[in-house]
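Below is the record:
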Amino acid sequence: MNRLKQIRKQKGITQEELARAVGITRPYLSDIERGVKTPGGDIIIRIANYLKLPVEEIFFTVDVNHGEHEKIA
């Protein structure tokens, strides 16, 4: 499951709007959402700040069976 895309759509934000706000291209954002590219820490923080959510909520999920974080983007 891609949390970034899901969250972006829930907030009614277009790829173009989010990409422009965080200083990346729309195709690069699309690649991040599809898991093709992994953004650097600075971009992850800019995305989280723009969406007003913790980084972990967007880019990681917790495996409740093992209590470990699993990277999903």
Remarks:
- The chain has one domain: 3-71.
- Residues 3-71 form a domain with the 434 Repressor (Amino-terminal Domain) fold (CATH 1.10.260.40).
- DSSP finds five helices and two strands in the chain.
- The mean pLDDT is 88.
